[in-house]
Backbone:
């Protein structure tokens, strides 16, 4: 991901993903580009004429260097496919791509986060990839099931998963030693975590700075919601259920850490990350992509699975998925080349894992190349319990509009956790209703 995304940026991303294209609401069978795609090669190899592929993504941080090297390697090996990579900040990307596709311009192949795939599929920004999965003999057993299933919308596959990037525990070894803790034994249970915070507090160290700015504060809340046995939505995705007892307990735990002095009040944007880099706090819950951030900053840190605070394990996560754009009059040779490019990067994604990711593909994740990567291979232990939002159009707009303000107000001690979550759930119900009407879902 490269860096944190602000709440305002998330709202822009959601607005861009909802760009209305002609033919909205129709299934893939009604889309002429689907038939065009179906005859565009198997994806196992490319034997067509020389083509130039435009590949867009939002890898504007250090992760972009890793992807660019892969693109260059692929282009040097495949003399008939020349891939040009264009990186755009994610919020701008999600606005520019639908508009560019609608006008017949834009990329041939791209990356989208898993929570935006259904929206872009419903708007026919992207093509279904059932034939890609079938031609390459990709199946559920080749990937971790939750990430494979998350790329399906309305009975069709639209995303080929590249990675999973879960929330993880980062621990500052120097601060742990200063607090009398073993830097090689990060806490893994609620009792161990609270004991560590108590010991740090006795040394005058506020060991865990609770973020107040979205999306970080909400990702933390969602993780704790899952760990308490809760869900974001009901099965029909008509109502938010984050105001359940599990949700109230999760947000109350966050607030109590502040009230009891384990965390400072009013932690500003990036403040908890800067404090971690400057040896001011010991524990930082954040995305795996921050491995590069802390290595570049020279922090003496470790990272691994999150401690279990609730009754079960759980972790917020997202995933980068490959998509093929629904451009008018798309060249079948470009579609065939795009399929082969996607397959090649997926098979070689151990290199991409160095950018701070967990490969979605089992064979890559189980390879010695990935298993030797630290701390990525440790964080990968979380995959059995990572969670994604449901594959519903417009779902990417609900949390930023409703839940983000609630978690923010609660940890700023401006609103009682239960009241904040109740209000947010009421707002979400209305947004979900509007989404069903908007997307005819």
Residues:
């Amino acid at each position: 991901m490269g860096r944190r995304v602000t709440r305002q940026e998330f709202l822009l991303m959601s607005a861009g993903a909802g760009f209305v294209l002609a033919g909205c609401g129709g299934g893939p069978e009604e889309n002429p580009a689907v038939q065009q795609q179906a005859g565009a090669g198997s994806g196992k190899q490319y034997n067509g004429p020389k083509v130039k592929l435009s590949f867009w993504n939002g890898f504007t941080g250090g992760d972009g260097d890793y992807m660019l090297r892969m693109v260059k390697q692929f282009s040097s090996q495949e003399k008939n496919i020349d891939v040009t990579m264009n990186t755009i900040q994610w919020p701008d990307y999600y606005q520019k791509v639908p508009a560019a596709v609608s006008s017949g311009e834009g990329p041939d192949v791209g990356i989208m986060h898993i929570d935006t795939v259904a929206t872009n599929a419903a708007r026919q920004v992207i093509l279904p990839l059932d034939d890609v999965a079938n031609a390459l003999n990709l199946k559920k057993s080749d990937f971790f099931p939750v990430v494979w299933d998350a790329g399906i919308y309305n009975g069709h596959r639209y995303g080929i998963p590249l990675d999973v990037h879960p929330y993880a525990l980062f621990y500052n070894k120097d601060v742990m030693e200063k607090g009398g803790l073993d830097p090689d034994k990060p806490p893994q249970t609620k009792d161990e975590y609270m004991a560590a915070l108590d010991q740090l507090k006795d040394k005058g160290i506020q060991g865990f700075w609770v973020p107040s700015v979205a999306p970080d504060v909400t990702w933390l809340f969602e993780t704790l919601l899952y760990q308490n046995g809760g869900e974001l939505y009901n099965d029909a995705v008509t109502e938010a259920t984050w105001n359940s007892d599990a949700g109230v307990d999760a947000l109350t735990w966050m607030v109590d850490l502040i009230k009891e002095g384990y965390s400072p009040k009013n932690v500003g944007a990036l403040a908890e990350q800067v404090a971690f880099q400057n040896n001011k706090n010991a524990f930082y819950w954040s995305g795996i992509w921050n491995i590069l951030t802390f290595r570049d900053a020279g922090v003496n840190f470790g990272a691994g699975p999150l401690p279990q605070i609730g009754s079960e394990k759980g972790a917020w996560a997202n995933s980068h998925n490959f998509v093929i754009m629904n451009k008018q009059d798309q060249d079948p040779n470009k579609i065939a080349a795009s399929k082969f490019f996607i397959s090649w990067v997926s098979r070689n994604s151990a290199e991409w894992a160095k950018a701070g990711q967990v490969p979605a593909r089992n064979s890559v994740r189980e390879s010695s190349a990935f298993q030797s990567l630290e701390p990525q291979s440790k964080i990968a232990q979380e995959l059995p319990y990572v969670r994604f939002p449901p594959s519903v159009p417009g779902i990417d707009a609900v949390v930023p509009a409703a839940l983000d303000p609630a978690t923010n107000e609660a940890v700023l001690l401006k609103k009682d956790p239960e009241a904040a979550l109740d209000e947010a759930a009421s707002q979400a119900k209305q947004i979900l209703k509007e989404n069903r009407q908007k997307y005819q879902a």
Remarks:
- The chain has a mean pLDDT of 91.
